[in-house]
Amino acid sequence: MDDPNPARAGWQAFALGSAAFAALTAVLGKVAVGEVNSNLATLVRTAVILVLVAGIVAARGEWESPARISRLGLAMLVLSGVATGLSWLCYYRALQLAPASRVAPVDKLSVALVIVLAVVFLGEPFTWRVALGGGLVVGGVLVLAGA
Predict the structure, then answer these.
(1) Which of 6, 91, 100, 145 is least crowded, fewest Cβ atoms below 10 Å from its Cβ?
(2) How many angstroms separate the first and last alpha carbons of the chain?
């Protein structure tokens, strides 16, 4: 489906890139947590991300004054960062305890949770397609995770 907003064109490519890199994250992370505890693995991963993203922002000349961020925007970024950090800590610990092929599908329950949160808090539409897709994700997780 084409996005009528040209400023958002190409989102599918980035979403597919995200999925591919998330798959690599699971496989590479599983190997890593066999060598080091999950919290240290998360710290190293986070440090690499910080350097990588700082390099991208610098290379693209996208540095801006933090004063330009509204209080609400800053608060949401901080809370999002906390949520991301806690997600990563949980994910790597789960990888340390179980096979990646079982952990990754359960992690993707985030898709169904995002649907619920987006409908409730962002006012996004809850259509039959959204309900069916979310339900299929949950069903797939149950099959793959062996619940």
Answers:
(1) 6
(2) 34
What distance in Å separates the CA atoms of residue 81 and residue 116, rounded to the nearest whole number? Answer: 20
C-alpha 115/C-alpha 95 separation (Å) is 25
Asked whether the beta carbons of 76 and 122 are under 8 A apart, the reply is no
In the three-class reduction of DSSP (H, G, I as helix; E, B as strand; rest coil), residue 2 is classed as: coil
- Rounded CA-CA distance 65/7 in Å is 23
The pTM of this model reads 0.82
Q: From residue 81, how far is each of 36, 40, 46, 74, 88 by CA, in Å? A: 23, 18, 11, 10, 10
SS3 state at 71: helix
Answer for the pair 38, 96: CB distance below 8 angstroms, yes or no: yes
